[in-house]
Amino acid sequence: MFENLSERLEKSFKLLKGEGKISEINVAETLKDVRRALLDADVSYKVAKEFCDNVKEKAIGANVLTAVKPQQMMVKIVHDELAEFMGSEARDINYKGHPGIVMVAGLNGSGKTTFCGKLALYLKKKGVKVMLAACDTFRPAAIEQLKTLAEQIGVPVFTLEGEKDPVKVAKAAISQAGQQGYTTVIVDTAGRLSVDQELMDEIRALDAAVKPTESLFVVDAMTGQDAVASALAFNEAIDYDGVVMTKLDGDTRGGAALSIKAVTGKPIKFVSTGEKMEALEIFYPERIADRILGMGDVVSLVEKAQEAVDEQEMRATRKKLAKNQYNLNDFYNQIQQVRKMGDIKDLAAMIPGMGKAVKDVDIDNDTAFKGIEAIYYSMTLYEREHPEAINGSRRRRIAAGSGTSLEEVNKLLKQFEGSRKMMKMAVDGSLASKLKSFRH
């Protein structure tokens, strides 16, 4: 996400390196390069120009002229302006009501139906009793797709077999949800391949009939400026409350994310960053600005870790560590928890300074863990529980059984030992004191 833009902006800031102060001349040179970077990222010319004008006005202010490091000051100004252009702060959705109704609109292929499933899972995790309503009667496969997604996440989906009028389906779904105590209904609407009059008439009729507590427009980030054009058209039709950007994990330049709020005035509320149902994130402009400028996103990383880690299991692990009983089973379980957090490359990019390091590294989640799993399952139950018993001959047998090398087995066991030592230090409090003494 935003990799190319990040690189281009980094090069732009280098124009200020070594400068004693920020002046109108060197700011103009830097911003000329920044504007090119934004245009290459598919940001509209009007938005790119407005952005650079705002940055220039702030950069040549009196308080900036005295900056010791102009390059760092420029990064901060661009960071704040990026966050401002994308909406300043995260906005939640209004899903509460009797029942609350969230209407989801968008073009075909934007990931609208998949987002409905992801949103249902997101709300379910918050303790919301949610129902999906299959109101896309235009695309034959849409209802089956929604049913499949609903089954995966354990959420009911309302359908009216043979009914072609989406308004009737939506009204029947809302009525049933109210009777059965569901607090939120997510309405999946029809899309087309492009904006047309029939689509706009249908979405207006649905909006008027169900009076949603929240209406969301789903847009494919990979469509660039076309995304902004369709966002404007849908906004004129239903005056939606927010935007959802999908496929931000794909080969996208990210310009739509920077343009859409500035052009439509509507906040981006969610971003979808993968195919898995859990791959949905609240859109935090500040954090996205951090990522664009290569500053990482530690807060999101910690939140992902908190979601993935089982607290009960962590307490059990602490007890084992205290009794020196931490073994390969515990180590393997922790690896599985890391795996649940998402794509390794995306996680690494959230660590400050790591984004550039992993950019050209081909990391596949499945293959990355295959060798570890093969080695683990080649061990006997006794070996997993008593890793100290794994001598040279056992290591050779494990390597042969897992289809890996002796070197890979040794590497895994070394990682296990390192993990055990670090966790033991953390549990007995010595990690904090060691870090403190290291800093001094």
What is the tally of helical segments?
22
> Distance between the terminal alpha carbons, to the nearest Å?
38 Å
Strand content: 5-15%
Low-confidence stretches are: 296-300, 430-440
What do the pLDDT scores average to? 79
Arrangement of strands in the largest sheet: 3-2-4-1-5-6-7-8
Rg on CA atoms, Å: 26 Å
- Total DSSP E strands: 8
Q: Which percent bin holds the helix content?
A: 55-70%
What is the makeup of the main sheet? 8 strands, mixed
Shape, per Cα inertia axes: flat
Structural class: alpha/beta
Topology pattern, helix = H, strand = E: HHHHHEHEHEHEHEHEHEEHHHHHHHHHHH
Question: How are the SSEs ordered, and which strands pair?
Answer:
Elements: H1 3-13, H2 24-40, H3 45-59, H4 62-65, H5 70-85, E1 100-106, H6 112-125, E2 130-134, H7 140-153, E3 157-158, H8 166-179, E4 184-188, H9 197-210, E5 214-220, H10 225-238, E6 242-246, H11 255-264, E7 268-272, E8 280-282, H12 285-292, H13 298-308, H14 311-322, H15 328-340, H16 344-349, H17 354-358, H18 365-378, H19 381-385, H20 392-402, H21 406-428, H22 430-439
Helix pairs in contact: 1-2, 2-3, 3-5, 5-12, 6-7, 8-9, 9-10, 10-11, 18-20, 20-21
Features:
440 residues, alpha/beta, eight-stranded mixed β-sheet, disordered C terminus
Structural overview:
- The protein has 440 residues and is an alpha/beta fold.
- 59% of the residues lie in helices and 9% in strands.
- The chain has 22 helices and eight strands.
- It has helices spanning 3-13, 24-40, 45-59, 62-65, 70-85, 112-125, 140-153, 166-179, 197-210, 225-238, 255-264, 285-292, 298-308, 311-322, 328-340, 344-349, 354-358, 365-378, 381-385, 392-402, 406-428, 430-439, and strands at 100-106, 130-134, 157-158, 184-188, 214-220, 242-246, 268-272, 280-282.
- Strands 3-2-4-1-5-6-7-8 form an eight-stranded mixed beta sheet, sandwiched between helices.
- β7 (268-272) and β8 form a beta hairpin.
- α1 packs antiparallel against α2 (24-40) and α5 (70-85) crosses α12 (285-292).
- It starts with a helix and ends with a helix.
- The relative contact order is 0.10.
- Mean pLDDT is 79; it is low at 296-300 and 430-440.
